[in-house]
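User: Sequence recovery, please. Input:
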């Protein structure tokens, strides 16, 4: 028996990658973002809904913040729609969503409670910082792919909602990627790149780097 497998890769405007695998003898399947699309005949209302964003996240972590990001993994009906949503909780006086970027999305942040210091840094060569103190009802936009952050600078808990322009935005936390890489990046690389002492680099690499979600 011979199985013929063809793979067609389609790139859409928001960097989705759609794989159409055609097995001429057995099955046809469409995979979007690495996920097998659900047969519409088996879809239910539950695929298009999610409950729980009213529940605060666990902020008793190293960062004292928590991100609950709802993507197509948790809500299959989002797949291919180019949108996702997150609730971000911050402890008072320094709760942090650390510097990170989304490789496939821009973001709009809405503050519901508390006072946040939020900002982003532009790319090479300028590295301009755009930052602002945000109060309830304020919005802030983080452009596509740029490093950004939020920190609670108030003495009460803070809550924000983030809307992202992809159902699979991805998250790359800068410190985790640099100092928590598996396997570790050669310390000489980081010593030169960050102008740091080698012992300090090795100490940073030995620490536990937690994700905010």
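Assistant: Recovered sequence (213 residues):
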């Amino acid at each position: 028996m011979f199985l013929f497998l063809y793979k067609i890769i389609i790139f859409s405007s928001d960097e989705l990658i759609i794989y159409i695998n055609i097995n001429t003898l057995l099955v046809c399947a469409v995979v979007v973002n690495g996920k097998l699309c659900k047969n519409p005949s088996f879809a239910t209302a539950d695929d298009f809904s999610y409950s729980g964003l009213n529940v605060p996240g666990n902020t008793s972590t190293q960062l004292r913040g928590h991100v609950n990001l709802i993507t197509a993994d948790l809500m299959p009906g989002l797949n291919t729609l180019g949108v996702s949503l997150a609730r971000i909780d911050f402890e008072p006086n320094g709760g942090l969503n650390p510097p990170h970027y989304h490789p496939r999305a821009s973001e709009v942040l809405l503050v519901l409670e508390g006072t946040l210091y939020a900002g982003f840094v532009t790319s090479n060569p300028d590295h301009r910082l755009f930052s602002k103190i945000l109060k309830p009802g304020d919005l802030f936009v983080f452009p596509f792919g740029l490093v950004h952050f939020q920190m609670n600078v108030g003495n009460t808990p803070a809550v924000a909602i983030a809307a992202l322009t992809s159902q699979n935005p991805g998250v790359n936390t800068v410190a985790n990627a640099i100092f928590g890489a598996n396997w570790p990046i050669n310390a000489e690389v980081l010593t030169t790149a960050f102008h740091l002492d080698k012992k300090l680099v090795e100490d940073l690499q030995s620490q536990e780097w937690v994700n905010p979600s």
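Residues 124 and 185 are 22 Å apart (CA to CA).
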